[in-house]
Amino acid sequence: MAELGAVQVPTGSESVAIANARMARARASFTRARVVLPPLGVLVLIIALWYAGAAMFDAQGRSFVLPYPHLVFEHWFLDPARRLEIFAYTLNTIQVMLIGLAIAIVIGVVWAVLMSQAKWLERSLYPYAVILQCIPILALVPLIGISIGYNTPARIVVTVMISLFPMVSNTLFGLQSAERGQRELFQLQGASRLTRLIKLQFPSALPLIFVGLRNAAGLSVIGAIVGDQFFKRGDPGIGVLIYNYASRLQSADLYAAILTASLLGVVVFLLFGLLGRLAIGRWYDFG
Question: What is the pTM of this model?
Answer without folding.
Answer: 0.78
